[in-house]
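4-hydroxy-4-methyl-2-oxoglutarate aldolase: structure, please.
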Amino acid sequence: MKTADLVDSHDAEVAFCHLPFLSFGQISSFNGPIQTVKSFEDNVLLKAELSKPGNGRILVVDGGGSTRLAILGDIIAGIMHDNHWAGIIINGAIRDSEEVNAMEVAVRCLGTSPKKSAKTGDGQVGIPVSFGGVTFAPGHWVYVDADGVLVARKQLVLPEE
Ligand SMILES: O=C([O-])CC(=O)C(=O)O
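Here you go.
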């Protein structure tokens, strides 16, 4: 599903997350229901969530916009892949970006950092998080492709051509 087509057919139902995301991984278009994590420069909760069955969900991580530390690398990206998460959107940074880029995963993030994240476990899981002008709520739907990130309250159906 192209995000441009969704805007054309469902403009009132979609919200555009207007951050300049970078894209990593071999899967560039993805969509699915949202799960969320909010944690600043810490990836314990993110890793714990990705260690559960993803069932095609997309983990949206509000890392407060920090690109100082990386909260995902190739090991956690592998966990995400193995547990069938459709993708991850990070308001923050990743590392091992060349390795992650070669994997069959879908990643959006703000930047890269070689520095590893803290491991305190601070943060929250499964709450609405807001960045880039939109709120990502658990169970709502996110659509991602090369043009951008859109959020809808439910799964959308494109009209027949
Ligand atoms: O362990 C971390 O903090 C992140 C990382 O490097 C990885 O997932 O490979």
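Notes: The mean pLDDT is 97.
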